[in-house]
Amino acid sequence: MTNATETAGGRRILLGQIGSAHGIRGDVMVRTYTADPASIAAYGPLTDKDGARPLTLSVVRVTDKGVVARIKGVSDRNAAELLRGRELYVLRAKLPDADEAEYYHADLIGLEAVTEDGHPFGRVIAVQNFGAGDLLEIRVGDSRDVEFIPFTNACVPDVDIAAGRLTVVPPVLTGEAGPDDREAEVGDASGDD
Fold first, then answer.
1. Which of 90, 110, 145, 167 is the most exposed place for a label (fewest CB within 10 A)?
2. SS3 state of residue 53
3. Is residue 153 classed exposed, middle or buried when 0-12, 13-18 and 19+ CB atoms within 10 A define those classes?
4. Angle (nearest 5°) at CA 97 between 95 and 101
């Protein structure tokens, strides 16, 4: 799933997605992608990815499963059910500036990746998190190959959003035995001197 889309009005950022209806008065459960789940309603009307069909949300309460929200103009369960699955976007310009050394994923996507010595490495096509921290998914050169680089200070020492690039230092994998190492281990284990 992408978290940004470019429209005529500007870049839009995905803030959440409407889940199921909640109760009989038209409330909905919303899965949010904001740092503070309750802040999803703080950006004004949210639209679809094309900037159409605005919805104005007010947060009723935050739960472990998401945010229970009321949508202006939706007053019954049937109307709420029609919104299930709807993604909620906001213009990037409406989001606050990121703090020092913090970045919106959408701002990283599309950046050119270069090595420490300035050689082209590829382009960031996504930011993934499989449970152990953010990884930059980088398409290598003009190929279809991708590399995952941990988004850490050691592996990404410099990010320059204004210049449209970041520096990558691919991690060195250790502890993996290559074919020559396996032969040496077998030779050592045989007891021959």
1. 145
2. coil
3. exposed
4. 130
Query: In this structure, what token pair is assigned to residue 64?
Result: 């472990």
d(CA 29, CA 70): 9
Instruction: Give the number of residues written for the chain.
Output: 193
Each residue's pLDDT, cut to its tens digit, for the chain (193 residues) gives 346 665 555 788 899 999 999 999 999 999 998 889 999 999 999 999 888 999 999 999 999 989 999 999 999 999 999 999 999 999 988 888 888 888 888 889 999 999 999 999 999 999 998 888 899 999 998 889 999 999 999 999 999 999 999 999 988 876 655 444 433 333 333 344 4
What is the C-alpha to C-alpha distance for residues 49 and 5, in angstroms, rounded to an integer? 6
The domains located in the chain, with CATH, are 4-94 (2.40.30.60), 105-167 (2.30.30.240)
What pTM does this model have?
0.68
Tokens at residue 76, please? 């019954």
Q: Tokens 């270069």 label which residue?
A: 114
Q: Are the beta carbons of 44 and 57 closer than 8 angstroms?
A: no
